Give the backbone structure.
Amino acid sequence: MINRITISISILTIFLLLGLPGHSWAIQPHGEPEGMYVHQMAHVLFLGALAYLYLHTRSTPDLVSRGWRYLRLFCLLSIAWNIVAFTGHIVADLHGQRAPGAPLDIVEILYILTRMDHFVFVPALFALMFSLRTFYLEAGEEKAQ
Amino acid sequence: MIASTLSFAIFVDLAGSAMVILLSFLSLRFSYFLAKRQPDNFLWGFLFYFSIAMSAFAISRGVGHIARQLLVLNNHVDSWETLSPYSGGINTLLLISVSAVTIYYHKGLAAYKIIRNEAEKLAAANLKLADTASQLQKMNTYLEEMVEERTRDLSTSEKKFRHFFENSKDMVYFCNMGGEISDINTSGLHMLGYETPPKNFNLLSFFKNHETLERYLTALKENGFVSDFELELETRDGTTRHMLLTANSILDRQGNMIGCEGIAKDMTRLRNMTEQLINQEKMASVGQMAAGVAHEINTPLGVILGYAQLMMDDFDEKDEVYENLKVIERQTKACRKIVADLLKFSRQSESAKTAVNPNDVIEDVLAVTEHNLNINHIHVQRRYTPSLPMVIGDAEKLRQVFINLFNNSAHAMENGGEIIITTSHDQAADKVIVTIRDTGTGIPDEIKPKIFDPFFTTKEVGKGTGLGLAVTYGIIRDHGGTVTVESPMQDSATGEKIQGTAFHITLPIAGKEQNAINE
């Protein structure tokens, strides 16, 4: 079965390559904004993954101990950090287009605030550390019993 | 203001980056120990990989931030611009990695749940199994204890019954349907004349009477038991033992008889004693009657004899009447002799007792009778004990005793034989024992109890009055002794049977008897 699919895909690819020459024939170029887009997409992906982890651990009846509550706090703070970082990257772009010595505006304020993302990310990692520490201690107690 | 804000932002960036690196590594450390502590827990494994990805991201991001601040502050903006894309790229990659690890968590957790459920089921099953095993172990231990206790009780019971079985003075036996003895106690073996059980040891073969055997077997089959069953067993040496038997059938599960078990008591001694007592009572009764009859007959006989003798004086000896009177006189004297014997038997005749030596009394008798015995090819063996104590007795009556016994022996040995006379002193009983043994035909068992009865005789009519042994019995009893008969004789050394009859007479020695008379 797999061999048939593999053979079919191979034949189709050869036909496409032979039948559709032109622009696709060359390596696709990557322009300057692409890296930023990928990075922003990664933030969105990470945010989505954390949101999923938060929701799943919250809806799972077994995962109710203190350690899981710390982990869910980590998820929320990390989600917030992703939002801040995502916003920060956009604001940084806008901030770069501003003229030097321009008066204080919303872009400038947001730029400064988003540069302080550690105020969110460090507590998030504190929550992660406490979560794992709690799990570790609970596992120790369980073992002792 | 701007400068101070910028400085604070730089400080926050540097300190925050460092804190992020530090905290991510602390997280990694805890997740590592956590995964190590419970290596089978998928969630800890997931958090460990998550922590690795976060630590890598924290390093990449933190180092990038710190490098940027340091390079920019030191006017190396160009260098940072060169380095920046790499740092950003790595950050992006690691962000995606952390996301991927997080998304992977879902499937892993589902699989882990299934495995955990199975493991929990398995653990529950193991727990149940362990519980069952524990219960089984307890039951087994209890069972072992119970078995030990029962075994102990059984052993005690077995010892008790074995002790009873082995030490019982009665015969206790177990046999199969055919009478083959499977187990018998030592007393039973001895009763039957054995030291060890022989091959083909069959109880039924010892039954002396066939009719008794039939009754025994029938009772066992029909009733399942016999109780106080009297029987005679003929032992290995031919001795007859009177037994009182109680036996039960042994049944299988279907109720079929497969053997029997029984206890038999040897009643021989009791029976002999009872017979002797009965005999003594009988002899006493007969003696009283004989004495009465003798007294009543003696006077008329005296008158008949007196008148007959008076009338004989009136007739000539050649006269026929004289001859008739002579017959009357002779027969009357014979009757008086019988009456005199009856009085001797019943101890009514006068007796003059003195100290006599039994050896001398026997020699006196032999002086008269031995010649006649020799003519009949009967030889006398004397086995006297030289220093035999004296006995108190009427020598005349004792001579009568020995004459009677020699006559009896001669009658039993019409074709010749031997008379062996043995005298001995039983010091323990203070008695003299005289045994007169012959090698004659012996006395059948069925007439043994009657031989001392007055007028009992095996001789033809006219050849004996049947008073000889009765008189002997009466005289010996009058002397405080006993007379017993043994036929056939048993050799004390070899245990073999010897044909013939032996009369054992015991007489109290003089001192003892004299003392008794004095008292």
